[in-house]
Specification:
Rossmann fold, 18 helices, 34% helix
């Protein structure tokens, strides 16, 4: 009897131990042990989540405004079951404008369906996601970028935080603070993936980077950076490229912004750069974040203040992220020529236009100052000679608004304003990026336009008001394609299981996963998605490439199809304007 009792007790202990180890799996990385948690999505797929793994030392104190420092090894097993705070920010994209997050924020999350045994050699394809937020907001938090949908596709997913705003991009145009700290954080993540992803069931030789908006531009910048060479094998840019006005480096601007930033917080804006940066290192992080409001001239505009910069390679800065204008790098053909997907949505301009049109106070102020505000909102002063700015703005106003201001009784002017924003910041730069890359002939490119309007949309979050919903059919908004790749419980309810939304979700996650696995985004044999290399058309010097138009469910015939007509008239208009970037494109 006593012997039987001991056997039963031993079996119970073994069961409890085995159950505990499967619910809270532990993995040894190169920096130490981590303990995750096993979860199950609504489809019944079991996966393992490891959240809040540090990939670099905390960028505080003397490490503020410096490249990320490799993480030191930790001794105790790290509890990796909860999201870490986002990088410190004031997220003006959404309604809550309060300062949130921490400066100690360089953490990543790994989600995987399988933890490898010692005898396994072939891992899952890896998807590394770079979040949106205009380089001033956002995070890799699972409440905004949940992994549930991708876990159905047997891939390993990585999300992460990177430094934002002044902390991510302050540059003095010299060795004191070369800049691009956020992009170097992202490169540190890619290096971490190469060193550690095999322990999480991932294949380091099949890494796809993908991102939305600022994250999409970051993806393109990694394609152009020597620092990222060999760290990834495919790329997806969703609504943004390195040529977007909010991402393309402007040589003289970073130092001017740095000096203004210093003056706003009580430092000497005219000091030498070493003294200036030393002073900024000693300013409270929250004071720095709040002070960005001093750059605004209208509402929250300009929303993007701190941007990527062009660095110099020197003995003190031997590993710059980027040393030339992205246009020059592409034309030189000296870039990471990996397979690339580039995506757009129907109404990209809603990211900014929704708030300006729906908030009556902002709309009225804009209308009263239309001809002085709009050239600044569009950044035309960075693209034209001073004596041509008014001329260019008049041509733009005539084309999109028939020479008028915004009129709430004329939906065409509202839609024209949305189109204007979308074309300036996303569609035309994206088109030119594709065109320049196609001209090199070095790598395949697939293009899509997401025009499916589902139950949910980011437009109400970006508008930050319940006013003016009935002014116009707002259509498909910037970021709406993310709804079908990630769960986002902080913003939206789950997609309904038996719905067109879920069918779009299945199509997109399968396409992204197959691209990550095989380098071709072809989820179903009955949907044709050829690369733009194989079906572009030339007409009077203008390239009209083919793209996949997603308008509805793949189960409804004709709602996902290929065509050649990517805003042809609108983008041809931009190509004929006397803009600085157009001269660079044509040289």
């Amino acid at each position: 009897m006593n012997k039987m009792y001991k056997i039963v007790t031993l079996l119970v202990i073994l069961c409890i131990t085995q159950s505990s180890s499967s619910i809270y799996p532990e993995i040894e990385t190169r920096s130490g042990w981590v303990r995750g948690i096993t979860l199950r999505n609504t489809f019944g797929t079991t996966y393992h989540a490891f959240k809040g793994i540090p990939y670099a030392e905390a960028p505080v104190g003397e490490l503020r405004f410096k490249a990320p420092k490799p993480i030191s090894r930790w001794e105790e097993t790290l509890n990796a079951t909860q999201d870490k705070p986002p990088c410190i920010q004031k997220n003006t994209l959404f309604i809550n404008h309060s300062v949130e997050g921490e400066e100690d924020c360089l953490y990543l999350n790994v989600y995987t369906t399988s933890i490898p045994r010692h005898d396994e050699t072939q891992g899952n394809a890896v998807l590394v996601y770079i979040h949106y937020g205009g380089f001033f907001a956002g995070s890799g938090d699972s409440s905004y970028h949940g992994p549930e949908y991708f876990m159905n596709e047997n891939v390993t997913l990585v999300t992460f935080n990177y430094r934002l705003g002044v902390f991510g991009f302050l540059s003095t145009n010299d060795d004191v603070a070369p800049g691009n700290w956020a992009l170097k954080d992202q490169t540190a993540v890619l290096n971490w993936v190469q060193d550690n992803i095999c322990y999480f069931g991932g294949d380091r030789d099949r890494v796809t980077i993908f991102g939305q908006s600022a994250g999409a531009a970051s993806v393109h910048l990694h394609m152009l950076s020597p620092l990222s060479k060999g760290l990834f094998h495919r790329a997806i840019s969703q609504s943004g490229t390195a040529l977007s006005a909010f991402a393309r480096p402007l040589p003289e601007i970073p130092l001017l912004v740095a000096r203004a930033q210093a003056a706003f917080v009580g430092c000497d804006g005219n000091a030498n750069t070493s003294a200036l940066v030393d002073c900024l290192r000693n300013i409270d992080a929250r004071v720095l974040v709040k002070s960005v409001d001093y750059f605004k001239f209208f509402g929250d505009q300009p929303s993007v203040v701190f941007m990527p910069s062009i660095e110099k390679r020197t003995s003190l800065n031997p590993h710059p992220f980027i040393t030339q204008d992205p246009i020059e790098i592409i034309k030189s053909r000296n870039f990471n020529n990996v397979p690339w997907i580039v995506g757009f949505v129907q109404n990209e301009g809603l990211i900014t236009a929704a708030e300006l049109l729906r908030k009556s106070s902002l709309r009225n102020e804009l209308i009263s100052n239309f001809d002085s505000y709009c050239p600044q909102l569009l950044g035309l002063n960075f693209s034209t000679f001073p004596n041509q700015t008014d001329f260019v703005w008049t041509k733009i106003k005539d084309f999109y608004l028939e020479g008028n201001t915004i009129n709430v009784t004329q939906p065409s002017t509202l839609q024209g304003f949305i189109n204007l924003y979308g074309d300036r910041f996303f569609n035309y730069p994206g088109y030119k990026a594709i065109d320049l890359h196609l001209a090199t002939g070095l790598h395949p490119i697939w293009v899509y336009s997401f025009n499916y309007k589902g139950e949910y949309s980011y437009v109400d979050h970006f508008a930050r008001t319940n006013e003016g919903k009935d002014l116009i059919d707002w259509g498909v908004c910037h970021c709406d394609d993310l709804l079908y790749l990630f769960s986002s419980p902080a913003l939206f309810k789950p997609l309904k299981y038996d719905s067109n939304d879920m069918q779009i979700n299945v199509f997109m996650t399968k396409a992204w996963a197959r691209f990550a696995k095989y380098g071709i985004p072809q989820p179903y044999c009955f949907i044709r998605w050829p690369s733009a290399n194989k079906c572009n058309k030339e007409l009077n010097g203008y390239t009209d490439f083919c793209y996949l138009n997603m308008t509805g469910s793949y189960e409804t015939r004709g709602q996902i199809f290929t065509e050649n007509n990517f805003f042809t008239n609108r983008l041809r208009f931009w190509s004929e304007l006397p803009l600085f970037e157009n001269f660079l494109y044509d040289v």
